[in-house]
Amino acid sequence: MSQPVNLSESSPSNGGDPALTARFEELLTRYAKLRPAENLTPLREAFAFASLHHTGQTRSSGEPYMAHPLEVAHILCDMSMDSVCLVTGLLHDTVEDTSVTIDEVRKLFGPEVSQCVDGVTKLAKLNFYSREERQAESVRKMLLAMVNDIRVVLVKLADRLHNMRTMASLSRERQERIAQETLEIYAPIAHRLGMGKIRAELEDLGFRYLDPAAFEEVTLAIESKRRATQGVLEEIRHAVEVKLSRENIPARIEARLKRPFSVYQKLKRQKISIDQVYDLLALRIITDSVKNCYGALGTIHGEWTPIPGRIKDFIAIPRPNLYQSLHTSVIGPGGQAFEVQIRTEQMHRIAEEGIAAHWKYKEGSKTAQTNEQQVAWLRQLVEWQQDVRDPGEFLSTLKVDLYPEEVYAFTPRGKVIILPRGASPIDFAYAIHSDIGHLCVGAKVNGRIVPLKYELKNGDVVDILTQQGHTPSKDWLNFVKTSKARNRIKHVINTTERAKAIEIGEKHLEKEARRLGVQWKKIGKNQVEQVAQDYGFSKMEDLHAALGYGKFSARQVLQQLAPEQVAAAEAEEAAPAPPPPAKLDGEDLVLKVRGIDDVMVYRAKCCNPIRGEAIVGYITRGKGVAVHSVNCSNVQNLMYEVERKIDVEWARAVNETFLVKLVIHTDDRPGILNQLTSSLFHEGSNIRTLEAQPDESRSDGSAIVNVALDVRDKKQLERIVNSVRRISGVRDVERSSSNS
Ligand code: MN
């Protein structure tokens, strides 16, 4: 495994490269200046350890490999990062590229460093550019969500920046790939974290390697513009200096040209020429207070004409990454437009360094107010979820959760699957493919079997176990989080239930045929199909399903197939057959207004009264007489116009039925639907629709069954409700008031 290393040795072992040792001593000097109180031993140990393990390795440029981690540490020092960060920078490639294990790193450098090194190593292993993973936004989000400690991202950015700076000796193909990845992933992350300086360098390097011709063209154009305007810029700068000092506004003034990459983007986006880029020349005024920022803006506008629509107040309304400045563009001497950015020192530091600005003032030398501002800044940036007791403590153990709504899991091959927080392996399986979901019988997460309702975490590697012929379970609906999984599961369950209904329907029909002495074999297949068609079904199966769901009785069907035999059987039966199915005779009125014949009468939808219930009529405007149950809550409200009330009665017709909807609450146990349909059927009612679904409001596997049936009257309804209540597992039955 690893070689022994003598850590007490004061001069680091680095394969005998004096240049590296000298460069490392520079790092120590710079760091000591930055944090005089800090112990340098961990840095020495990390340098010795990494040098030893990278011994013999070289970069593609031919220089010793150790030069890379050392320069990464220098970049982190430029960013004023802490010791943990620098040590991580020195060690960041040891676990990835040498025989060193993460356990060794933990033993030698402690848990904080080992967690950061582990984070960087994990990010390095991600295969961003496997075919499907080209969506840069999801990769960026994933990358940020993957890390628990924001310092991992900072080390990763420093690593990328150094690689970009030293890419000259790589092949064109690799240069292009790395440049593209930098522009799509790393520069936007730096932008999001508010790190303007690193972002700018990453973008310009990316641009240079991705499109060298365009880079050259833009750079030349900027250069010639610079030469042409140098005099003007100096003149403006001097004028501003004089005016501000006259107003007693202390200011540091920088004149600058827009960077190649942002000029290029602007030219491309706005389809303009370089002369039309108003903010190509820019002056930056850095002053001491917000008040003086606005003062300086007034001074500028007093001297030169501002271009309308170009004044932006990012002090009052900071950008999402907390960038603050005042921007304006004005017409300067000789008609030369230029941009002015005005900000305080603190705003400047945050604009350049973003999140990294926080480590600088960690020592507690700043006032409480500054700390509060920094913490507020961070709070907004990372949408954090934890309570913060001590801001200083918070900064050193920074935990971030940038995308709390999402969780990023991986297939064993490294493909990223983005799921909502709380998603289960079932959601994961359906996200890969519907068939994987259907066949899922178990899951391994990071190599271990987990329950199917396990909550996935960021970075979990999920291996779905499948079995041919397996079908989804209803229980899954209780914990899946994605609509894809939910819909696919429901679809399969509906299909399965239909298959059951078909089987039941077929058996019902055979059994009833036997009971009535109908000679089943004598009935031709064509004949049965004809009957199915008469019922409005295109297939036999549909008729069987309808029988299984209890929409018709088997006897009704047999009557059509063999009317004589059924009639003969019925004649023999002692008891009269159940009443014939509902058939509304047009001549028979269901309701009538007492004493009047030709009035349109209808049942009110709100209470949907059925025969046998006490009713009252109400004359509507233009729609005839609405009939309500006397118990209907609307009646009380309507009856303030007493003259519109009218007596109504149930007409004498007996063959009509009323559609009633029931909501049945049951335990979700096998066979309960069969019992329910047969019970409803035995009470002689016709089931129009029946739909069972899990009770979402409970988590104990209860179900809700919605049934719509035709009933003749109140008495029959009471019988039905009583018999349903007697079924074991049924908890409650209620009549639904909705008639639609
Ligand atoms: Mn590296």
Could you please describe the fold and organization of this structure?
The protein is α+β, with helices and mostly antiparallel strands. The chain is built from 27 helices and 21 strands. Strands 1, 2, 3, 4, 5 and 6 form a six-stranded mixed beta sheet that branches. A four-stranded mixed beta sheet has the order 13-15-14-16. Helix 10 (about 195-210) runs antiparallel to helix 11. The longest helix has about 35 residues, at about 210-245. Residues about 1-15, about 130-135, about 360-375, about 380-400 and about 575-590 have low confidence and may be disordered. The structure holds manganese (II) ion. Manganese (II) ion binds near residues 68, 92, 93 and 159.
